[in-house]
# Entry
Amino acid sequence: MTWPSYLATHSPEQTLYVGADGLFRRHDYDVEIAATSGAHYISGYAKVAGLMVPTRHRIFPQSPDGQALKDPLVISIDVSEIAFT
# Structure
């Protein structure tokens, strides 16, 4: 997908992978300010106020050919106690 230039993003060209259930599983993008690429794995969905929200995020670097590397784990985020007000 290509994002419009008026939106602030990691990079204008990004790839989203969606599971058979319609939920995002992976989000690939270039981090232009750092001259690197990331593979963002999204999981642990919880239903909150009728919306499916991912609770687990893991971001790994990518090789030049776009393959996600297993090391190092760059970012690890676990979210809990989600509420919309």
